[in-house]
Amino acid sequence: MSQPLLLVEDLSLKRNGRQILNRVNLSVQPGQVHILLGLNGSGKSSLAYTLLGCEGYVPDSGRILFDGRDLAGLSITERARLGITLAWQEPARFEGIPIGKYVSLGMKEASRDKVSAALEAVALPSKYYGYRSADRTLSGGERKRVELAAVFAMRPRLAILDEPDSGIDILGLNDIAALIRRMASEGTAVLLITHRDEMVEAADAASLMCAGTVLFTGSPAEAREYYANRCTPHLEALGSQPWDPSLPEVRQALASNGAERLARKEG
Ligand SMILES: Nc1ncnc2c1ncn2[C@@H]1O[C@H](COP(=O)(O)OP(=O)(O)OP(=O)(O)O)[C@@H](O)[C@H]1O
Ligand SMILES: [Mg+2]
Prior knowledge:
The structure is a single chain. By secondary structure, the chain is α/β, with parallel strands linked by helices. The protein has one domain (6-92, 159-266): P-loop containing nucleotide triphosphate hydrolases (Rossmann fold), CATH 3.40.50.300. 37% of the residues lie in helices and 23% in strands. The protein is built from ten helices and ten strands. It has helices spanning 44-52, 76-82, 99-104, 112-121, 126-129, 140-154, 173-185, 220-238, 248-256, 259-266, and strands spanning 6-15, 18-28, 33-38, 61-66, 69-70, 84-87, 158-162, 189-194, 205-210, 213-218. Helix 4 (112-121) crosses helix 6. The longest helix has 19 residues, at 220-238. Residues 44-45, 89, 162 line the site of magnesium ion (MG).
């Protein structure tokens, strides 16, 4: 296999004294869609912010290699220059900036046609949206689509998409999945963060995040099965995250990975 575009090794992060990431290991191949599934509070966005180099997200240990280069000490801007981009889970709104302008900001050679194509790719007709302001009057789903259009337009080497499917209606999910495949076919590797396991259909590889760590990496189909059979029982048994890994029942659940329940189901 070729050298991974992104290689995360034993990455740990504490915030306000709490262990948020705990020895995360993950790799994304060039041009691959890698889905990262995990329940609320499992650490997915925190991992995204750490990869991006956001303020306050300096890892305590471990490494992030991008195309073989260690990202330690590089700012958000330097990482963006290398080709790492994030579509935010909760994109901000901007008064006074037309949507077309916002989408063109990260483009190498912006043109009206390219902006229109990016908006059409997220099913926002540029005729209606291109000159509209990216402000608070946009609905949540519209704002998410604009954010995706902007990332698509940038043609980054790695697009981290933090729940691009949240706030998108069920019919729109196919548009999002198609856009993600299109990004990959045009050379952008995608780290697709979500808790909707049906999005595995758009992925080439999959990992599961739980209690701040990556528990499992494998094929999308295996990850979906693992999620349904093992993660859901954890949630039922332990309540919503965050789970305190120092509690014996949490340690036991993480160690068993729901094996008992799985055995019962199969038996
Ligand atoms: N500054 C902080 N101080 C303390 N706890 C924090 C801090 N930032 C994040 N957390 C906690 O870290 C855990 C992981 O949060 P994160 O936002 O990464 O989860 P997530 O997997 O993205 O969840 P969701 O699916 O809800 O978006 C949560 O329990 C959150 O409350
Ligand atoms: Mg999140």
